[in-house]
Amino acid sequence: MLVDRFGRVITNLRISVTSRCNLNCLYCHREGYLANSELTPDEIATFAEVFKKLGIKKVKLTGGEPLIRKDIIEILEKLPKFEEISMTTNGILLEKFAEDLKEAGLDRVNVSLDTLDEAKYRAMTRGGDINKVIRGIESAVEVGLTPVKINMVVIKGFNVDEIDDMIEFVKRYKGKAILQLIELVPLNNDLSGYFDVYTLIDKFKNAKEIRIRSMQRRKQFIFEDYAVELVKPVDNSEFCKACNRIRITANGMIKPCLMRNDNLVNIRGLKGEDLINAIKKAVMLREPFYKG
Questions:
Q1: Which residue of 33, 81, 84, 158 lies most exposed, with the fewest beta carbons within 10 A?
Q2: Residue 119: strand, helix, or coil
Q3: Which residues 6+ apart lie within 8 Å of 120 measured at CB?
Q4: DSSP strand pairing (84-89 vs 2-3)
Q5: How many Cα atoms within 13 Å fall on the side-chain side of residue 67?
Q6: E-assigned strands of the chain?
Q7: What are phi and psi of 260, to 5 degrees?
Protein backbone atom coordinates (compact mmCIF):
# COMPACT_ATOMS: atom_id res chain seq x y z
CA MET A 1 0.00 0.00 0.00
CA LEU A 2 1.19 3.50 -0.86
CA VAL A 3 0.43 6.08 1.85
CA ASP A 4 1.87 9.59 1.88
CA ARG A 5 2.91 11.70 4.88
CA PHE A 6 -0.63 13.04 5.19
CA GLY A 7 -2.24 9.62 5.45
CA ARG A 8 -3.64 9.67 1.92
CA VAL A 9 -3.79 6.19 0.39
CA ILE A 10 -2.91 6.19 -3.31
CA THR A 11 -5.10 3.87 -5.37
CA ASN A 12 -5.23 5.58 -8.78
CA LEU A 13 -2.42 5.91 -11.30
CA ARG A 14 -2.58 8.23 -14.31
CA ILE A 15 -0.11 7.47 -17.09
CA SER A 16 0.43 10.13 -19.72
CA VAL A 17 1.42 8.19 -22.82
CA THR A 18 2.14 11.30 -24.90
CA SER A 19 2.20 15.09 -24.75
CA ARG A 20 1.29 15.26 -28.44
CA CYS A 21 -2.25 16.00 -29.54
CA ASN A 22 -4.30 16.34 -32.72
CA LEU A 23 -6.06 19.39 -31.24
CA ASN A 24 -4.74 22.57 -29.66
CA CYS A 25 -7.27 23.50 -26.99
CA LEU A 26 -6.89 26.95 -25.50
CA TYR A 27 -6.85 25.84 -21.84
CA CYS A 28 -4.93 22.53 -22.12
CA HIS A 29 -2.34 21.83 -19.43
CA ARG A 30 -1.24 18.40 -20.78
CA GLU A 31 -1.33 16.92 -17.28
CA GLY A 32 0.84 19.81 -16.14
CA TYR A 33 4.00 18.64 -17.90
CA LEU A 34 5.38 18.67 -21.46
CA ALA A 35 7.44 15.55 -22.18
CA ASN A 36 10.15 15.52 -24.84
CA SER A 37 10.11 11.74 -25.32
CA GLU A 38 7.66 8.89 -24.81
CA LEU A 39 7.73 5.70 -22.81
CA THR A 40 7.62 2.43 -24.73
CA PRO A 41 4.80 -0.08 -24.22
CA ASP A 42 7.19 -2.33 -22.28
CA GLU A 43 8.28 0.51 -19.99
CA ILE A 44 4.65 1.43 -19.31
CA ALA A 45 3.80 -2.20 -18.56
CA THR A 46 6.78 -2.55 -16.20
CA PHE A 47 5.86 0.56 -14.21
CA ALA A 48 2.18 -0.43 -14.08
CA GLU A 49 3.03 -3.90 -12.79
CA VAL A 50 5.12 -2.50 -9.93
CA PHE A 51 2.47 0.06 -9.02
CA LYS A 52 -0.12 -2.73 -8.98
CA LYS A 53 1.97 -4.72 -6.53
CA LEU A 54 2.16 -1.59 -4.37
CA GLY A 55 -1.62 -1.28 -4.19
CA ILE A 56 -2.79 0.68 -7.22
CA LYS A 57 -6.36 -0.36 -8.15
CA LYS A 58 -7.19 1.80 -11.17
CA VAL A 59 -5.19 3.13 -14.12
CA LYS A 60 -6.08 5.92 -16.52
CA LEU A 61 -4.20 6.58 -19.76
CA THR A 62 -3.97 10.26 -20.59
CA GLY A 63 -2.11 12.67 -22.84
CA GLY A 64 -1.95 14.80 -24.89
CA GLU A 65 -4.19 12.57 -26.93
CA PRO A 66 -3.54 8.87 -26.25
CA LEU A 67 -5.13 7.68 -29.49
CA ILE A 68 -2.51 9.35 -31.69
CA ARG A 69 0.00 6.77 -30.50
CA LYS A 70 0.16 4.11 -33.18
CA ASP A 71 0.93 1.50 -30.52
CA ILE A 72 -1.92 2.41 -28.15
CA ILE A 73 -3.53 -1.03 -28.56
CA GLU A 74 -0.20 -2.70 -27.76
CA ILE A 75 0.10 -0.52 -24.65
CA LEU A 76 -3.31 -1.67 -23.45
CA GLU A 77 -2.64 -5.32 -24.21
CA LYS A 78 0.57 -5.26 -22.17
CA LEU A 79 -0.93 -3.65 -19.09
CA PRO A 80 -1.61 -5.96 -16.14
CA LYS A 81 -5.20 -6.37 -15.01
CA PHE A 82 -6.61 -3.70 -12.70
CA GLU A 83 -10.02 -3.07 -11.19
CA GLU A 84 -10.46 -0.52 -13.96
CA ILE A 85 -8.46 0.73 -16.93
CA SER A 86 -9.80 3.92 -18.45
CA MET A 87 -8.67 6.60 -20.87
CA THR A 88 -9.17 10.33 -21.31
CA THR A 89 -9.52 11.28 -24.97
CA ASN A 90 -10.72 14.22 -27.04
CA GLY A 91 -12.81 11.71 -28.99
CA ILE A 92 -11.65 12.69 -32.48
CA LEU A 93 -10.32 9.17 -33.19
CA LEU A 94 -12.60 7.27 -30.83
CA GLU A 95 -15.04 6.05 -33.48
CA LYS A 96 -12.15 4.41 -35.33
CA PHE A 97 -10.65 2.70 -32.28
CA ALA A 98 -13.56 2.04 -29.89
CA GLU A 99 -14.03 -1.67 -30.65
CA ASP A 100 -10.29 -2.43 -30.66
CA LEU A 101 -9.84 -0.55 -27.37
CA LYS A 102 -12.54 -2.61 -25.72
CA GLU A 103 -11.04 -5.87 -26.98
CA ALA A 104 -7.58 -4.79 -25.77
CA GLY A 105 -8.82 -4.37 -22.20
CA LEU A 106 -10.05 -0.79 -21.88
CA ASP A 107 -13.06 -0.54 -19.56
CA ARG A 108 -14.34 2.97 -20.20
CA VAL A 109 -13.48 6.43 -21.52
CA ASN A 110 -13.64 10.08 -20.48
CA VAL A 111 -14.31 12.32 -23.48
CA SER A 112 -13.55 16.04 -23.46
CA LEU A 113 -16.49 18.03 -24.82
CA ASP A 114 -16.94 21.60 -23.61
CA THR A 115 -19.61 22.78 -26.04
CA LEU A 116 -22.17 21.43 -28.48
CA ASP A 117 -21.82 24.44 -30.76
CA GLU A 118 -19.75 23.54 -33.84
CA ALA A 119 -18.27 27.01 -34.32
CA LYS A 120 -17.36 27.40 -30.64
CA TYR A 121 -15.84 23.93 -30.62
CA ARG A 122 -13.67 24.76 -33.64
CA ALA A 123 -12.55 27.97 -31.95
CA MET A 124 -11.76 26.33 -28.60
CA THR A 125 -9.86 23.41 -30.15
CA ARG A 126 -8.38 25.47 -33.00
CA GLY A 127 -9.93 23.41 -35.78
CA GLY A 128 -11.57 20.31 -34.26
CA ASP A 129 -14.62 18.59 -35.76
CA ILE A 130 -17.30 18.14 -33.10
CA ASN A 131 -19.18 15.62 -35.25
CA LYS A 132 -16.26 13.20 -34.98
CA VAL A 133 -16.38 13.52 -31.21
CA ILE A 134 -20.11 12.82 -31.04
CA ARG A 135 -19.73 9.78 -33.29
CA GLY A 136 -16.89 8.65 -31.04
CA ILE A 137 -19.07 8.90 -27.96
CA GLU A 138 -21.82 6.92 -29.69
CA SER A 139 -19.31 4.22 -30.68
CA ALA A 140 -17.97 4.04 -27.12
CA VAL A 141 -21.47 3.52 -25.74
CA GLU A 142 -22.20 0.93 -28.42
CA VAL A 143 -19.16 -1.25 -27.65
CA GLY A 144 -19.51 -0.89 -23.86
CA LEU A 145 -16.77 1.58 -22.89
CA THR A 146 -19.16 2.80 -20.24
CA PRO A 147 -20.06 4.77 -18.33
CA VAL A 148 -18.69 7.37 -20.74
CA LYS A 149 -17.77 10.44 -18.74
CA ILE A 150 -18.27 13.67 -20.65
CA ASN A 151 -15.69 16.16 -19.38
CA MET A 152 -17.07 19.69 -19.71
CA VAL A 153 -14.66 22.36 -18.49
CA VAL A 154 -16.95 25.19 -17.40
CA ILE A 155 -15.60 28.54 -18.60
CA LYS A 156 -17.08 31.93 -17.79
CA GLY A 157 -18.18 33.77 -20.90
CA PHE A 158 -17.90 30.66 -23.05
CA ASN A 159 -20.17 27.77 -22.10
CA VAL A 160 -21.87 28.34 -18.73
CA ASP A 161 -25.13 28.88 -20.61
CA GLU A 162 -24.80 25.46 -22.28
CA ILE A 163 -24.98 23.30 -19.17
CA ASP A 164 -28.68 22.50 -19.67
CA ASP A 165 -28.02 21.56 -23.30
CA MET A 166 -25.19 19.26 -22.22
CA ILE A 167 -27.48 17.59 -19.67
CA GLU A 168 -29.99 16.88 -22.44
CA PHE A 169 -27.15 15.49 -24.55
CA VAL A 170 -26.10 13.11 -21.76
CA LYS A 171 -29.69 11.98 -21.18
CA ARG A 172 -29.86 10.42 -24.63
CA TYR A 173 -27.48 7.67 -23.49
CA LYS A 174 -29.91 6.38 -20.85
CA GLY A 175 -27.58 6.18 -17.88
CA LYS A 176 -24.52 5.10 -19.85
CA ALA A 177 -22.97 8.58 -19.69
CA ILE A 178 -22.06 10.90 -16.82
CA LEU A 179 -21.59 14.65 -17.17
CA GLN A 180 -18.56 15.96 -15.30
CA LEU A 181 -18.63 19.73 -14.83
CA ILE A 182 -14.98 20.57 -14.27
CA GLU A 183 -13.55 23.76 -12.87
CA LEU A 184 -11.04 25.50 -15.13
CA VAL A 185 -7.49 25.26 -13.77
CA PRO A 186 -6.09 28.72 -14.62
CA LEU A 187 -2.91 28.82 -16.67
CA ASN A 188 -0.35 31.46 -15.65
CA ASN A 189 -2.77 32.73 -12.97
CA ASP A 190 -5.20 33.93 -15.64
CA LEU A 191 -8.59 33.98 -13.87
CA SER A 192 -10.54 35.58 -16.71
CA GLY A 193 -12.42 32.36 -17.53
CA TYR A 194 -12.64 30.93 -14.02
CA PHE A 195 -16.07 29.76 -12.85
CA ASP A 196 -16.73 28.20 -9.44
CA VAL A 197 -18.65 25.01 -10.23
CA TYR A 198 -19.94 24.76 -6.65
CA THR A 199 -22.23 27.71 -7.39
CA LEU A 200 -24.21 25.15 -9.43
CA ILE A 201 -25.08 22.94 -6.45
CA ASP A 202 -28.60 24.33 -6.05
CA LYS A 203 -29.28 23.45 -9.69
CA PHE A 204 -29.04 19.77 -8.81
CA LYS A 205 -30.55 19.75 -5.31
CA ASN A 206 -33.56 17.74 -6.51
CA ALA A 207 -31.45 14.73 -7.46
CA LYS A 208 -32.84 11.39 -6.25
CA GLU A 209 -29.45 10.69 -4.67
CA ILE A 210 -26.42 12.82 -3.83
CA ARG A 211 -23.12 11.01 -3.40
CA ILE A 212 -19.84 12.27 -2.02
CA ARG A 213 -17.26 10.23 -3.88
CA SER A 214 -14.19 9.10 -1.99
CA MET A 215 -12.04 10.28 -4.89
CA GLN A 216 -11.22 13.87 -3.97
CA ARG A 217 -14.60 14.32 -2.22
CA ARG A 218 -16.43 14.99 -5.46
CA LYS A 219 -20.17 15.65 -5.36
CA GLN A 220 -22.21 13.45 -7.71
CA PHE A 221 -25.90 14.02 -8.35
CA ILE A 222 -27.91 10.99 -9.51
CA PHE A 223 -31.10 11.42 -11.53
CA GLU A 224 -33.34 8.86 -13.25
CA ASP A 225 -31.47 8.62 -16.54
CA TYR A 226 -28.28 10.62 -16.01
CA ALA A 227 -25.75 11.78 -13.44
CA VAL A 228 -23.80 14.99 -12.95
CA GLU A 229 -20.53 15.28 -11.08
CA LEU A 230 -18.91 18.52 -9.92
CA VAL A 231 -15.11 18.54 -10.09
CA LYS A 232 -13.65 21.44 -8.14
CA PRO A 233 -9.84 21.34 -7.98
CA VAL A 234 -9.18 25.07 -7.47
CA ASP A 235 -8.66 26.40 -3.94
CA ASN A 236 -10.34 23.30 -2.53
CA SER A 237 -8.66 21.79 0.52
CA GLU A 238 -11.22 18.95 0.59
CA PHE A 239 -10.27 18.01 -2.98
CA CYS A 240 -6.58 17.85 -2.07
CA LYS A 241 -7.19 16.20 1.30
CA ALA A 242 -8.86 13.23 -0.39
CA CYS A 243 -6.53 13.00 -3.41
CA ASN A 244 -5.73 9.38 -4.21
CA ARG A 245 -3.87 9.92 -7.49
CA ILE A 246 -0.30 9.89 -8.65
CA ARG A 247 0.95 10.50 -12.19
CA ILE A 248 3.62 9.26 -14.58
CA THR A 249 4.60 11.70 -17.32
CA ALA A 250 5.08 10.58 -20.91
CA ASN A 251 8.86 10.50 -20.47
CA GLY A 252 8.96 8.56 -17.22
CA MET A 253 8.80 11.05 -14.38
CA ILE A 254 6.58 10.48 -11.38
CA LYS A 255 4.51 13.62 -10.82
CA PRO A 256 3.22 13.64 -7.24
CA CYS A 257 0.89 16.63 -7.80
CA LEU A 258 -0.79 17.99 -10.93
CA MET A 259 -0.19 21.57 -9.79
CA ARG A 260 3.58 21.27 -9.27
CA ASN A 261 6.65 20.52 -11.36
CA ASP A 262 9.33 21.04 -8.73
CA ASN A 263 9.14 17.60 -7.11
CA LEU A 264 9.30 15.17 -10.04
CA VAL A 265 11.10 11.84 -9.64
CA ASN A 266 12.70 10.19 -12.66
CA ILE A 267 12.00 6.44 -12.83
CA ARG A 268 13.01 5.79 -16.42
CA GLY A 269 15.49 2.94 -16.64
CA LEU A 270 14.83 1.77 -13.08
CA LYS A 271 13.79 -1.76 -12.15
CA GLY A 272 13.36 -3.92 -9.08
CA GLU A 273 14.14 -2.36 -5.70
CA ASP A 274 15.50 0.81 -7.32
CA LEU A 275 12.13 1.40 -8.98
CA ILE A 276 10.18 0.62 -5.81
CA ASN A 277 12.36 2.98 -3.77
CA ALA A 278 11.93 5.78 -6.31
CA ILE A 279 8.15 5.34 -6.23
CA LYS A 280 8.14 5.46 -2.44
CA LYS A 281 10.31 8.59 -2.55
CA ALA A 282 7.79 10.26 -4.88
CA VAL A 283 4.94 9.31 -2.57
CA MET A 284 6.70 10.95 0.36
CA LEU A 285 6.98 14.16 -1.70
CA ARG A 286 3.20 14.39 -2.01
CA GLU A 287 1.45 17.13 -0.05
CA PRO A 288 -1.91 18.89 -0.47
CA PHE A 289 -1.53 21.85 -2.82
CA TYR A 290 -4.50 23.60 -1.16
CA LYS A 291 -4.19 23.12 2.57
CA GLY A 292 -7.17 25.16 3.78
A1: 81
A2: helix
A3: 158, 159
A4: unpaired
A5: 24
A6: 2-3, 9-10, 12-16, 58-62, 84-89, 108-112, 148-154, 177-183, 209-212, 219-222, 227-231, 245-248, 253-255, 265-266
A7: -130, 150
Q: Which residues contact 172 (CB under 8 A, 6 or more apart)?
A: none
- The whole-angstrom separation of Cα 224 and Cα 105 is 29
* Residue ranges in 175-271 assigned as alpha helix (H): 237-241
Q: Could you give the domains of the chain?
A: 2-284 (3.20.20.70)
Over residues 257-275, mean pLDDT: 96
The mean pLDDT value for 29-36 works out to: 76
List of residues 6+ apart from 53 with CB closer than 8 A: none
Between CA 17 and CA 248 the distance in angstroms is 9
Global model pTM greater than 0.70 = yes
What is residue 29's predicted lDDT score, i.e. its pLDDT?
A: 77
Q: Which residues pair with 227 in a beta bridge?
A: 178, 222
Q: Could you give the C-alpha distances from 275 to 13, 53, 83, 193, in angstroms and in order? A: 15, 12, 23, 40
How crowded is residue 160: how many other Cβ atoms within 10 Å of its Cβ? 15
